[in-house]
Amino acid sequence: MVYPSLKEHPMARFMRLRLAMTMEQLDYYVIPSRDAHGVVDPKNSTLDYGGKLSLAMISKTAAYLFVDHSEFTVAEERVVQDRWFVIPIDMVGSPDYWATWLASQAEKATVGIDPYLIWDDTSVMLRSLLAVKESHLKTPEQNLIDRILLYKVERSSILFPSCFIEPSSRLGQVQYWIMKQSPSTVISPHEEMSMQEPSGALVISSEDISFLMHLDGAD
């Protein structure tokens, strides 16, 4: 499997993950740092932090990071505070606390998780807890972290363009260019001529629009 460079705007991966969640009709997506056999999955560090004793939980509007007390200080230093709620727990003594917490928050919600990253008995317990508030567990066919990292090999295999919209800098260049233009001659309905400063520009070329909106990803 080929992955693209991870040098991108820090919010881009969250945007693509939430887009993937929308496509799967998920309200929450759970990302354990280890698989069911206890092996740490390095790609889970894609979202700021991937400690050995941690679990990330992404909702439509927030992101939660459950970490063992031993990793709490390091996790708080590494993650961006305005993107994460860091929750210290005992991952050894109470490894399933996150499931109880999630069940208390999710009401009539759909929770997604890679089935290879969770024990069967934990899955059964989580389904039972979620059912109390009419929520349920869903296992997408593809790990969503894999999906957002998957690089385009063929056009038909594209799942998400690798782009991020950040229009401010290039729009500023255009606005500056408009201000520097010479006044235009305007003829009124009464055939009176006057000089008028330019106030805008019409952009109709798809290439120019892509440039302005920073849509420089896969076509």
Q: How is this structure best described in words?
A:
- The radius of gyration is 24 Å and the shape is elongated.
- Helices cover 30% and strands 17% of the residues.
- Strand 3 (63-68), helix 2 and strand 4 (85-89) form a beta-alpha-beta unit.
- It starts with 11 loop residues before the first helix and ends in a 7-residue tail after the last helix.
- It has seven helices and eight strands.
- It has a six-stranded mixed β-sheet with strand order 4-3-2-1-5-6, with helices on both faces. Strands 7-8 form a two-stranded antiparallel ribbon.
- The protein is α/β, with parallel strands linked by helices and 219 residues long.
- It has two domains: 12-157, Creatinase/prolidase N-terminal domain (Creatine Amidinohydrolase, Chain A, domain 1); 168-212, no CATH class.
- This is Creatinase N-terminal domain-containing protein.
Can you describe this structure in just a few lines?
InterPro entries: Creatin/AminoP/Spt16_N, X-Pro_aminopeptidase_P. This protein has seven helices and eight strands. It has helices at 12-23, 72-78, 97-105, 120-131, 144-149, 168-179, 206-212; strands spanning 28-32, 54-59, 63-68, 85-89, 110-113, 136-138, 184-187, 193-196.
